[in-house]
Specification:
The complex is a heterodimer of chains A (163) and B (233). Chain A is an all-alpha fold and 163 residues long. Chain A has eight helices and no strands. Chain A starts with a helix and ends in a 5-residue tail after the last helix. Chain B is 45% helix and 30% strand. Classes of the chains: A mainly alpha (163), B alpha+beta (233).
């Protein structure tokens, strides 16, 4: 592996660190496990770096592998930790109560809904791209998005937030 | 809603210490990869040297044939020589530590061979550890596939055969056959993980997965393991 490659992996880590961490945290709901997943993803990247074609491919690869690693970690009984929302929020510096409340409502949603909401709204992936990375049908992703929006809206309204 | 969601996630950042620690580990992994390569080359070098020497030997025979020796005698050695590199190199790779300890790596190797040869099914001649785990850092366990067959079906990789659950309890290894016959029999739905250790039983969720060229398939099922290590399906 050349020095140029070493540089490439470093660049990818710096560029996508937040994205990978956010997805891992969305999946794991736990900063300790999210950090384990984060490291696992980039260590896997070392072995796969020669297969990465371009930036777009790198992003899609990282999203898919983060989701897969999280799934593996979640189903591993011996690695399971629990962490309350309050503990999680101590690690995140929210500016307003609304932001912290919204994060809490998002974390309460089922995992599949959290995933599509994050990928659609934050990473701005199209439905087609979400289908590719999550290996789901377009109709499934669309219905998950619609249900997730509905559940989040209900939760916001219930707690006095409008719009 | 879009703005609210963005604002909420905007405040989540990977801790700097985590990024730095990951980069350090990545560099170590890259160095290890780098060191492994010359070792692989060393293993290939004697094979390449033998092949080259044998090929020269074959050429001499062929040359003799052109000069008037019976050509049918000269074709046989060169035919044998042509088979030498593939078999030898494959056997070497499969026996390396890397592939013996990691079942997933072995599958990858077999799948690569299948793709290269255009085969759609492959009988696995060896036992493969498809999953290795450690329950509560106390009981190491493995899921083993015996008499396995790997196949490509509609773009998916399917493993079929005899699956066994092998757990080490009090220094003793207990192997129990599992009911599953195919990775197709597992469900891929999200399952909530629970572990029950009451009454000397542990409920395990098996999650078998492998990755091949970014194609990921995963399977999971539930089994109850008795205190003596035997499995209750």
């Amino acid at each position: 592996m050349s020095d140029e490659k070493i540089q490439d992996v470093d660049e990818i880590i710096y560029k996508y660190a937040d994205m990978v961490y956010r997805i891992a945290l969305t999946q794991m709901k736990n900063t300790h496990d999210a950090q384990d997943v984060f490291q696992e993803v980039f260590l896997r990247l070392v072995k796969a770096i020669d297969t990465i074609e371009d930036e777009e491919h790198a992003k899609a690869w990282l999203i898919r592998v983060t989701l897969n690693c999280s799934k593996t970690s979640l189903t591993s009984a011996w690695r399971r930790h629990t962490q309350s929302l309050e503990e999680q929020e101590q690690d995140i510096a929210f500016e307003t109560k609304e932001q912290s409340d919204l994060y809490e409502y998002l974390q309460k949603l089922p995992k599949k809904y959290r995933t599509v909401l994050y990928l659609f709204y934050y990473e701005e992936l199209s439905v087609k791209e979400i289908c590719d990375v999550t290996r789901q049908k377009e109709s499934t992703v669309k219905s998950q998005l619609s249900r997730a929006r509905g559940m989040l809206r209900t939760e916001l309204e219930k707690n006095g937030y409008t719009g | 809603m879009e703005k609210r969601i963005k604002d909420s996630f905007d405040h989540i950042h990977a801790p700097e210490s985590l990024v730095e620690d990951t980069i350090r580990k990545v560099h170590i992994a890259q160095q290890e990869e780098k060191q492994r390569k010359p070792y692989r080359n060393m293993r290939v070098f004697p094979i390449a040297a033998i092949v080259m020497a044998a090929a020269c030997f074959g050429l001499v025979f062929l040359w003799k044939g052109i000069l008037g020796t019976d050509i049918s005698n000269t074709q046989e050695p060169s035919g044998n020589i042509a088979q030498l590199p593939d078999d030898t190199i494959n056997a070497g790779s499969m026996e390396s530590e890397e592939y013996q300890t990691k079942g997933q790596q072995s599958w990858k190797q077999v799948l690569t061979q299948m793709e290269e040869s255009g085969e759609t099914t492959k009988n696995l001649s060896e036992e493969y550890v498809v999953y290795e785990g450690n329950f509560n850092q106390e009981y190491p366990f493995k899921i083993i596939l015996k008499n396995g067959v790997l196949s490509f079906e509609n773009g998916c990789v399917i493993a079929e055969g005899d699956f066994y659950f092998d757990i080490e309890i009090a220094g003793k290894s207990v192997e129990s056959p599992l009911q599953i016959r195919s990775t197709n029999q597992f469900s891929d739905e999200d399952v909530k993980v629970t572990t029950q250790e009451a009454q000397g039983e542990a409920l395990f969720q098996f999650f078998v997965e492998t990755e091949y060229k970014e194609e990921h398939f995963s399977v999971h099922t539930w089994y109850t393991v008795n205190q003596d290590g035997t499995v209750k399906s």
